[in-house]
Specification:
about 210 residues, alpha/beta, Helicase, Ruva Protein, domain 3, Dna Topoisomerase Vi A Subunit, Chain: A, domain 2, 2 domains, 5-stranded mixed β-sheet, two-stranded antiparallel sheet
Length: about 210
């Protein structure tokens, strides 16, 4: 327990420590750093955080974060909109984009099916994905969810619902270790996994045969 001499400092530390990966001591260090900054710099940080919350939206098509109704990836005419990579969250989009190996578009689910955590189909954008498939024009769905029980369950649920509606359904090659999140994979490995993707049906049968 950190004993503080200012209620304002204590309140700030309590709020900062609510951020992921930030403990009380790290929060205290950040709060003390902010006290030393010019008021203009602190105000700029506050303004940027406020705009992050009030002005960043989710793309109407893929549910990636965006400053506009349609994100830059979906709006880019050079991207292949007939190839859709299904990912867990926005961090996976960033990780795959950093490989420079993928030129299709995305669909961000917002998580994976996890009954233990109270996350079902209704909490995700799976139905929106099915709507995109039903609208036609998609030639390939790439299932790029985590290699976990929850990720595999979500992959299989999606596959069963679209297998007769999309010509090609693939999954990224298992250069990504079991249980590993895409955002933590090195760019070379992740890039190879995208390029060397395999038919989902074959991969599922091999893993469950």
């Amino acid at each position: 327990m950190i004993s503080l001499y200012s209620k304002h400092l204590e309140n700030a530390v309590n709020e900062i420590s609510k951020l992921p990966g930030i403990g009380k001591r790290s929060a205290l260090r950040l709060a003390l750093h902010l006290i030393k900054q010019d008021e203009a710099n602190v105000q700029l940080l506050t303004d940027r955080i406020n705009k992050l919350k009030s002005e960043v939206v989710y793309c109407r098509l893929c549910h990636n974060i965006s400053d506009h109704e349609i994100c830059d990836i979906c709006a880019n005419p050079k991207r292949d909109s007939s190839v859709v990579c299904v990912v867990q969250d926005i961090r996976d989009v960033i990780a795959i984009e950093n490989t420079h190996q993928y030129q299709g578009v995305y669909h961000v689910l917002g998580g994976v099916i996890s009954p233990m955590d109270g996350i079902g189909i209704q909490q995700l954008t799976i139905q929106k994905l099915f709507d995109r498939v039903n609208a036609g024009g998609i030639k390939e769905i790439i299932l790029a969810l985590p290699a976990t029980v929850e990720g595999d369950t979500t992959n299989f649920f999606i596959y069963k619902n679209i297998q007769n509606k999309v010509p090609t359904i693939t999954t990224i090659a298992r250069g990504i270790g079991v249980g590993e999140e895409l955002e933590y994979a090195d760019e070379a490995t992740l890039g190879r996994s995208i390029v060397a993707r395999t038919e989902f049906g074959n991969a599922y049968n091999n893993n469950n045969g």
